[in-house]
Each structure stands twice: as structure tokens, then as C-alpha cells.
Amino acid sequence: MRDEDLLARVASGDERAFETLYGRHAAAVRALVRVRVPDAGTAEEVCADVWLGCWRSARAFRGDAKVLSWLLGIAKRQIYMRVRRVRPNVTALDDAPEPRDDGPSPETAVLSEAGVDDLMALLRRLPVELVETATLAWLHGLSYRQIADLSDVPEGTVKSRISRARRLLRAQLDR
């Protein structure tokens, strides 16, 4: 069944259609959110808000965009609202708890040994659109088509961004 048909059924309260739509697009929504929201807990909350927004707003879908693009638009708005709403917690140094050193998690230790930390540090030096595109492709395993839909750019632009990111990273590594 087409996404548009599923969303129409979601608008009428069909939970099975919602589950199917979720199954098709949850990974793409999660990937976009995780790229833009570094904290895993906050990212999960944003994803939940996206799907709640989908359920509540399904009737508002006009059909002038792909369902995935519509969902990603909801995600972008939720991310923006979360960033606006969240204020950094300021604690007086005298009141701050003593830092705990439980050591790195096994995942962090493995990734660190593999040089992923260094790669991510280099990646963050690139322009934002290259970081986002490369992260979606390399770390989240999305296809060029999925990234194009997420970013609202042509697939060729995604390919050139990946190529440029690879070239710039290689140049940084060669230094």
C-alpha cells in the first residue's frame, strides 16, 4: 500500500496503518533526529513527539509532498522547538556534584580504539551540510535516495556532498 493511502487510513484512526507507516520510516526519522540531537535520550523524546504529531496531524497532510518529506518536516519542527525550549542548566560550582568516573562504556572504548573519535572530530570540522550527509550515509547506513528525501535535495547533490566530504577528510588525514 502507498504511503499516502496509509496516512489517509491513519487520519481515520487505523492503528495498523500507523504501525506500517512507522515501520517504513522510523529509521529515517531517527537518523535525522540523531544527527541533529546528540543526546540519545532527548533524541528518543523528539522521535516520540514526531510520531505523536503524525498521528494527530495526519488529516492535515495535503499530498503536495512525499509522506517521508512531511514526516521529516515534523521532525525538523520538533527539533527546532526542543532546541528553543531547552535552556542549559546552570549550577553553582559549590553545589555541583563530584564527577563520577565510571570509565568509558565498552562501546565508547571500542569506538575510541577504532579511531572513530578522531574521525568524528575531523568530520565536525566540515561544513554542516557535509557533516549531516556523511553521518546519515556512513553511520546510519541510509541510501542516497533516503538522504535526498531527508535533506530535500536532489540525489546528485547527496552524491557530490559525500564525495566532497570524503575528499576533505582524506586531505585532513594526510596532514
UniProtKB/TrEMBL annotation:
<dbReference type="GO" id="GO:0006352">
    <property type="term" value="P:DNA-templated transcription initiation"/>
</dbReference>
<keyword id="KW-0731">Sigma factor</keyword>
<dbReference type="InterPro" id="IPR036388">
    <property type="entry name" value="WH-like_DNA-bd_sf"/>
</dbReference>
<feature type="domain" description="RNA polymerase sigma factor 70 region 4 type 2">
    <location>
        <begin position="119"/>
        <end position="169"/>
    </location>
</feature>
<dbReference type="GO" id="GO:0016987">
    <property type="term" value="F:sigma factor activity"/>
</dbReference>
<keyword id="KW-0805">Transcription regulation</keyword>
<feature type="domain" description="RNA polymerase sigma-70 region 2">
    <location>
        <begin position="21"/>
        <end position="86"/>
    </location>
</feature>
<comment type="similarity">
    <text>Belongs to the sigma-70 factor family. ECF subfamily.</text>
</comment>
<dbReference type="InterPro" id="IPR013325">
    <property type="entry name" value="RNA_pol_sigma_r2"/>
</dbReference>
<dbReference type="InterPro" id="IPR007627">
    <property type="entry name" value="RNA_pol_sigma70_r2"/>
</dbReference>
<keyword id="KW-0804">Transcription</keyword>
<protein>
    <submittedName>
        <fullName>RNA polymerase subunit sigma-24</fullName>
    </submittedName>
</protein>
<dbReference type="InterPro" id="IPR013249">
    <property type="entry name" value="RNA_pol_sigma70_r4_t2"/>
</dbReference>
<dbReference type="Pfam" id="PF04542">
    <property type="entry name" value="Sigma70_r2"/>
</dbReference>
<dbReference type="InterPro" id="IPR039425">
    <property type="entry name" value="RNA_pol_sigma-70-like"/>
</dbReference>
<dbReference type="GO" id="GO:0003677">
    <property type="term" value="F:DNA binding"/>
</dbReference>
<dbReference type="Pfam" id="PF08281">
    <property type="entry name" value="Sigma70_r4_2"/>
</dbReference>
<dbReference type="InterPro" id="IPR013324">
    <property type="entry name" value="RNA_pol_sigma_r3/r4-like"/>
</dbReference>
<dbReference type="InterPro" id="IPR014284">
    <property type="entry name" value="RNA_pol_sigma-70_dom"/>
</dbReference>
